[in-house]
Specification:
The structure is a homodimer of 366-residue chains.
Chain A lengths: L1 E3 L2 E7 L5 E7 L25 E4 L6 E4 L35 E5 L11 E6 L13 H19 L6 E8 L11 E7 L4 H17 L3 H12 L3 E4 L3 E4 L10 E5 L6 H4 L3 H21 L6 E6 L9 H5 L5 E6 L1 E3 L2 E2 L4 H6 L3 E2 L3 H10 L9
Antiparallel strand pairs in A: 1-2, 2-3, 3-6, 4-5, 6-7, 7-9, 8-9, 8-13, 10-11, 11-12, 12-14, 13-14, 15-16
Helix pairs in contact in A: 1-5, 5-8
């Protein structure tokens, strides 16, 4: 049992050797993980293991994971692999009760030693949504992500930890139980690399953190601010790529979540504002908003840029909604995926105004 | 009436001033465009014009086009704006009969002087699909794209012409009538810029064209070749990002379609192989494959890289399918859109084998 940023963590193993980590509130009764009674073959036997290939046209790595074609696809509610195990119904989580759990993905896009893929389950309640969880659980999730980031950054060969959530069957989510994921890449992926490079250059040239500068400008202007929290702000960025895109930015400048947790109140504020922003996105069209939630964190100290690059990064969360109007999704088409030019249908000022007005009266909880 | 790479082109104007270009086979009777009798307001009045914003986190331009939210969305077949006009039913194309037509998009992501957006209609037959058009029409389309590329590259401020097709309601296509589009960007979008940069660097460092080298390697290996034409080859690239991704590559090295048309047989071969590749993609799951088709061409001579960059580019077509298995789409999620790391579910060798076997007996027409 380890202390994980104020939570209690117990590590276990699944039947096929994959790791599982249970996170409980400090002071919860000690947990002894149940054994996994399923007859699972060790991963990789009979499968072609994931590969990383480099695209000669861009120099960018591409993940090849053929075994993922057979992954679990929208199972019935009573066959959800993220629910607690019960007699006669064994899931990915052997314990009959849990709070937050992280385990190695059974159908990973990357496998050791060439990266890691983890699943982060937010709650044992199959029907709960992120926006409705108690504030304490949302705050605990940020701590879990910080703990896994620190652990994975120390794994051999990990250059970049990417914590994210894919949300909504509209964007291809195959399990509806509230969960996120963590990818530990053996390289820094190109979009994150661009942020790091620009941030580092900005710090060197202008002498200021790019994230701090953007945050200060948005707070001063106010037009695109959606939620103003005690120590974090949510705003629609000036050059948004997604309709109703929202960035959740801690006021404290830290390169990643473990560093942000040096000030637990700052991490709590991020969790609170994250939840409130998603509540407003859900209220906007009267239906849960399909989105990706992407944490921008600095590369690991063992990445080629190393500690030098970490200094310039201001960790924050990006919410990338996929619905542009009721019943109408935002699709990425040729301009976005073939040329790289995003076309945005919703003016960021209008988006922020709509989100401020959406679900009014809910207010910032926590 | 102008000669457009062997076709006959007649230019006209729509009621709101937008340009329209009719392309007919050489030797067709001379065409006098019908006037557009619709009471259309000039574009832009009352609308906020499209803007280009630069994302401070990447330095990349983003297109902001709020007026597009009201664009025509899956109209009934008898209200299709791409069908020929008829008495009492006026469409975007005033003539009662046409072969290939190009006109300025009524709901553009970019507007002069900051770029251009055009619609390319392949046929007056509302129900026809690209794969089933006569070979002559497919070959004519490649000439039309070449003619528009040459014309747009000469427009003030155009740095990059991007010809593409979005195909399938599954990926958000709002009009089902067979058509493509052309964007003329006042910048070179980042994905195309990466290809240009890598190709130029490869030529400088290795002394060979990157496209020629990839093509030769794929033809020599054979495992990923899908269609071998007289002067063009279709193959699944080694580091594909999309399930069943196919590149259609002319054997002749040319920076763009106007240059390729110096050898009309090379352009014809591309058209033939493009059609055959799409036929095989359609046969694969027994249903038309949703995809984006993206032409890689060199930037214009007036772009910052100018003529120096054009030398390294080998123009080709990329087919990016969006279905990974029957009934299962490939979605871009957080790893792709938040970090930039693509995860591929289908091994490129398996994909090529499946496409070679799909629709066997159809053979290469034309």
């Amino acid at each position: 049992m380890a202390n994980a940023f104020g939570l209690s963590r117990v590590d276990g193993a699944l039947a096929d050797g994959r790791a599982i980590h249970y996170y409980d509130p400090a002071g919860a009764p000690p947990r002894t993980p149940c054994p996994d009674a399923r007859p699972l073959a060790p991963p990789g036997e009979g499968d072609r293991p994931p590969q990383i290939r480099v695209d000669p046209w861009t120099g960018e790595p591409v993940l090849l994971a053929g075994a993922r074609q057979d992954r679990t696809f929208l199972p019935a509610d009573d066959a959800c692999p993220l629910c607690p195990s019960a007699p006669g119904r064994l899931t990915e989580i052997p314990d009959p009760a849990y709070a937050l759990v992280v385990f190695d993905n059974r159908f990973p896009s990357m496998a050791p030693p060439h990266g890691r893929c983890e699943v982060v389950v937010y709650t044992s309640d199959h029907a709960a949504t992120w926006a409705d969880l108690p504030a304490e659980r949302a705050r605990a999730l940020v701590r879990v992500l910080a703990d896994r980031t620190a652990a994975l950054n120390a794994e051999p060969g990990v250059h970049q930890v990417f914590a994210f959530e894919n949300r909504g069957v509209e964007i291809g989510v195959t399990l509806t139980h509230a969960h996120g994921q963590i990818y530990a890449y053996p390289f820094t992926p190109p979009i994150l690399a661009a942020y790091v490079q620009r941030s580092t250059a900005h710090l060197a040239e202008v002498g200021r953190c790019l994230g701090c500068e953007q945050l200060a400008a948005e707070r001063a202007a106010g037009a695109r601010v959606v939620v103003e929290g005690a120590a974090a702000t949510a705003y629609v960025p000036y050059a948004a790529r997604w309709p109703y895109e929202v960035h959740v930015v801690p006021h404290r400048c830290a390169p990643d979540l473990p560093a942000l947790l040096a000030d637990p109140a700052a991490a709590d504020a991020v969790a609170d504002v994250w939840q409130e922003a998603v509540r407003r996105l859900d209220a906007l069209h009267g239906a849960p908003m399909p989105l990706t939630a992407c944490w921008v964190q600095a590369p690991s100290a063992q990445s080629p840029g190393g500690l030098g690059e970490r200094a310039g990064v201001h960790t924050h969360l990006r919410l990338q909604p996929a619905r542009r109007a009721p019943g109408k999704l935002k699709y990425l088409a040729a301009s976005e995926t073939g040329a790289g030019a995003f076309a945005l249908d919703v003016d960021p000022d209008d988006a922020a105004r709509a989100l401020r007005e959406a679900g009014d009266g809910v207010g910032l909880r926590g």
